[in-house]
Amino acid sequence: MSRDEAKAAIEVGYVQAKDMIQKGINCLILGEMGIGNTTSSSAIVSFLGDEEVDAVVGMGTGISSEQLQHKGNIIKQAIEKRNPNSEDPIDVLSKIGGLEIAGMAGAMIAAAENRTPILVDGFICTTAVLVAKELAPHVVDYIILAHKSSEPGHAIATSLLKKKPLIDLHLRLGEGTGAAIAYPIVQSATLMLKEMATFTSAGVSTKT
């Protein structure tokens, strides 16, 4: 991506999320669909987290050990040759990121600005949180990690965010599947806080 393309992708996500929030959603659920985006996500997590690429890169949709080694080598070459600026998240996005990561980061920023909780799917979405956090640190206050991905880089990304996923079903899918599964848990927690009776309102005696 060029720098302008990265900015435009962030803006697209921002505008779409803001429009959805204005139409009444009370939770932004993010997912992605794509091929090869565990590669860009691994590159970003390795770079921003100052982690060895080999510790981050995983099997993605299912590749051989030889392909895994090649994937790691490509990521190392990309980081070395493109030399992104760790102090400039737009530069990181444009050089080793992807359009979907930029779009989700923009959507997260819009949700945080509007105090709307963000239910985050797996590895790629969590990588987008790392980028959004660099652009707007308060985003982290509004995210809920839905599930633990089987990708090794996801554990590193969640550790960087100091967040724990709600569920661990050994999922490797994206497309928002883990977030959709976790959403009823978030609903239940909200309803419990809002509607569950207290001892006083339920007339429960506190005497032994």
UniProtKB/TrEMBL annotation:
Gene3D superfamilies: 3.40.50.10210
Glycosyltransferase keyword on record: yes
Coiled-coil regions, chain positions: none
UniProt keywords, alphabetically: Glycosyltransferase, Transferase
UniProt entry tagged with the keyword Chloroplast: no
GO molecular function: nicotinate-nucleotide-dimethylbenzimidazole phosphoribosyltransferase activity
Name recorded for this polypeptide: Nicotinate-nucleotide-dimethylbenzimidazole phosphoribosyltransferase
